[in-house]
Amino acid sequence: MSLENVLTSAWYQSSWWLKLMSPLSLLYRFVILIRRQYLNLLHKNIRYRSPVVVVGNLNIGGTGKTPLVMGLASELFRRGFNPGIVSRGYGGRSKLYPLTVTSDTPHEHCGDEPLLIARSTSCPVVVDPDRSEAVKYLLKNFNCDVVLSDDGLQHYGMPRDIEIVVVDGVRGFGNRCCLPTGPLREPETRLAEVDFIVTNVTQGDVFKTSFKKLDKFSLAPKSFRNLSTGETKQIGELSNIKKVHAVAAIGTPERFEATLNSLGFEVVLHAFEDHRVLGPEELSFEDDLEIIVTSKDAIKLPPMKNRKIWVLDVVTEIKTDLVDRLEAKLISANQNLELHSSES
């Protein structure tokens, strides 16, 4: 078991020995506070022509930020907005930045999540390790009236107008301590400053906080897609299959397992570190069971002749009036930007 897995398990089980690292957490909190104040001061006069919405999290690990970004982008587009999306492009490496991501961009250049967004939405997607540069490029080259940042809550070099924190509805913040004693990049009190707290209730709805009203969303199974043939089957059409291999290299593979369990499958889970590029060796088994992978993993897989590999495509279901309130804040932010522009 890797050190990362040992720590993650300890963080969410409140292991006693983590208290030995409490002095390091105090030092960490002091450093990030000074860093944030410095960057906010350095960039306080930077304004973009369109509002920026950051969708991030406080803790290390997967919470469902990217699916929520895609869901918000689709809803805003349906309401008449022209959203664009920026990302760091984790896992990718390009010779040139900023990089516009299209459905044909190799995942090695842009990372898996930006490519998934580009293929799943009609929005322009730009990646750059410096998200601020990505925003500038996006607004210069595309007619966007709102920018969604996939992650980047702690990227204070990128000014923002609206902040959304995503929380796993079951795992929450673990022991609620900052690194390295716990999984938090910033203290939980940071929630008081953000605009929205959104819980991913795909597995359950346990997380509670007194800082703000909680909005909720879940990832609902949409269909199965055969990786080799492209054939699509609706949920339920594979009901004759009882036991499957589930292969996932995502932040929370247990959520993928739980989704398949809810569909009636007996699941043999094969979990790998987030963003890992899977190959034939991870998808080869001695038995004859069907294999199901996530859409995020499928986007990185090479062509395969194995017709037993299926992709579970999901859709984001926002369960509260989050989009209504976000739209109101965007209208207000645009008015403030126009006022600031007229005064300059």
Rg result: 21 Å
Low-pLDDT residue spans: none
Shape: globular
**What is the typical, i.e. mean, pLDDT?**
94
- Through-space gap between termini: 57 Å
Largest sheet: 13 strands, mixed
**Relative strand content:** 15-25%
Order of helices and strands: HHEHEEHHEHEEEEEEHEEHEH
- CATH homologous superfamily name of the largest domain? P-loop containing nucleotide triphosphate hydrolases
Query: How many domains make up the coordinates?
Result: 2
Tell me the helix content. Answer: 25-40%
Q: What name does CATH use for the topology of the largest domain? A: Rossmann fold
Structural class per helix/strand content? alpha/beta
Number of strands: 13
**Which second-level CATH architecture of the largest domain applies?**
3-Layer(aba) Sandwich
Explain briefly what this protein structure is:
By secondary structure, this protein is α/β, with parallel strands linked by helices.
List the topology elements.
Layout: H1 3-13, H2 22-42, E1 52-56, H3 65-78, E2 83-87, E3 99-101, H4 107-110, H5 112-120, E4 125-127, H6 131-141, E5 146-150, E6 162-168, E7 196-200, E8 214-226, E9 232-234, E10 243-248, H7 253-262, E11 266-271, E12 290-294, H8 295-298, E13 309-318, H9 322-343
Parallel strand pairs: 1-5, 1-6, 2-4, 2-5, 6-7, 7-8, 10-11, 10-12, 12-13
Antiparallel strand pairs: 3-4, 8-9, 8-13
Observed structural traits:
13 strands; 9 helices; 13-stranded mixed sheet
Would you write up a description of this structure?
Helices cover 31% and strands 22% of the residues. It is of the alpha/beta class and 344 residues long. It folds into two domains: 3-217 and 319-343, Rossmann fold (3-Layer(aba) Sandwich); 221-316. The protein starts with a helix and ends with a helix.
